Amino acid sequence: MSEPILEMTDVSKRYRTAGGFGRGRKGFLAVDGVSLHVERGEALGLVGESGSGKSTLARMANGLVVPTSGTVRTDGQDIARLGRRGLRRLRRNVAMVFQDPLASLNPRQTVRQTLENVFRAHGETTSTAELVALLESVGLGADYLGRYPHEASGGQLQRVAVARALALKPDLIIADEPTSALDVSVRAQILNLLADLQRDQGISFLHVSHDLAVIRLYSDRVAVMQRGRIVETGPSDEIFRSPQHPCTRALVEATPEAELPA
Amino acid sequence: MPDPVLQVEDLCVSFTSGGVTADVVRDLSVRLDGGRTLAVVGESGSGKTITGRAIMRLLPRGASARGRIVVAGREMLSADERELRRARGSDVAMVFQDSMSALSPYLDIGAHIAQAVRLHDPSVTRRAARARAVEMLDRVGIPEPAGAVRRFPHEFSGGMRQRAVIAMALVNRPALLIADEPTTALDVTVQAQILALLRELQREYGMAMLLISHDFGVVGRAADDVLVLYAGRQAEYGSLRDIFEQPAHPYTAGLRAATPRLDARLDTGGERTRLRAIPGAPTSLRDAGPGCAFAPRCGLADQVGERCVVEAPLPTVRPTSEGGGPHLAACHLDRLPALKEVAR
């Protein structure tokens, strides 16, 4: 069996808190001894309430947040041992899509500049044809190359953000609430796009969301976080059919379905 | 029939900027009785928030409303400032999505509620108003209300803050509560609690509620009737049952199909389901042509032909289930085909 694309072992993150509000001098333990892995080609869904530590955990997976303890391996390599160049290589393989596309794109750059910069940062050049093909793979036409972020809708911008993540052919995409800021009718388009990328290009996903229905639709396996710990993990179908941990059960029960009340 | 708590007739809201006037809401009519909840569902640009604000007469600068809005017998559009002050709080109150911006960081929670009491009735003493605040916090389920009145907004969690805002809005027993995405910023477990609380208080006070939401899940839990807006116009109106079980507008059906469901994969025997997405993005009335604003995104427009592009459909009567109220849809198609053909 090949190595998992992402393997986190006993990872913790403690944030120092200014002024010692509430949690005292020891700081705030956002992630508390978590181990998880993502197999190649797999979509792992990470759910939990706000403050459960899921975003911190996701950011540790690509080195945006440095763990206080524990190891993070991508592709078998311990990312704490990577130098500057190693980290750069890591970020080719592990791309990220954020919640708010407008905030994650530079308002003063056209889509072309945004995409070209990704290649430039990794010492590569690119052609217009390649950029057009990239946009087409996320369902956008060539005319978007000349547009600025304010000239596109939220759904279109999120497609641009996905194109940027895809530019260097990553093995793993970490998506942190990628559809939470989008309109309902547009959210489905982006979810389908991400599902297609996993199926057609074999890209692995770590999908962070507070929305269980989204995670259900989208993930092979699910990990449930509560107060910095993973309290339940398993195949998506099993977790939703028979949630074991009280936290998972509460989440499943509270999720409003677009159904008539019984 | 008793007089409705809220009656809106032919409401149009327009914005003027740089000498150009454009409608954002057009020809909206709503009737809402006491004790009932009407959900207003829509996406960006649908006009759902601006409609709520028009009812409160809280429109932003440059916006103006025409038509007729009657709240508890009071004509809102012709009311002067003094009348409006009297109406807000006692006839109609509002709860917003972001509870932090509805509260002053410099005042404790008790001061917010006491202020609402004394604005409404200046003869109430400070001490009595403060006592009302404690009572009200207790009623909305805040533990240790006597201590909680002295706490400041930042010391509350999001859910507790929303409870406090609800206490503030309901302390004068308004006939109508407008709740604009009241649970959107909250975790699902807290969301369920807040919706339950709103329903409970509504029953107790017999008030009418206008629930503005983008989420059919929330609507299914709380609404009696549903108004679906698209690009500033009424797309469909009906009882919750009719809207969910026999939607008559392709947009309503498409929105439902595009919403992920928890049991999605159980239905399909483990196969991964693709959502039926609606192509394109929501538009506003400003960008819509003379025809149906939804036509460019509609999978059924081809079946009707040119009429969808040149003529905006008016709401017409649709079949209702037993005991259901009026069911109206603004679509040139008389009948929707099975759901799977609705979105392309």
Automatic annotation (TrEMBL), chain A:
Record carries keyword Transmembrane helix: no
CDD domains cross-referenced by the UniProt entry: ABC_NikE_OppD_transporters
A GO molecular-function annotation: ATP binding
Keywords: ATP-binding, Nucleotide-binding, Transport
Residues in ABC transporter domain copies: 6-252
Family, as annotated: Belongs to the ABC transporter superfamily.
Protein name per UniProt: ATP-binding cassette domain-containing protein
Organism: Microtetraspora glauca
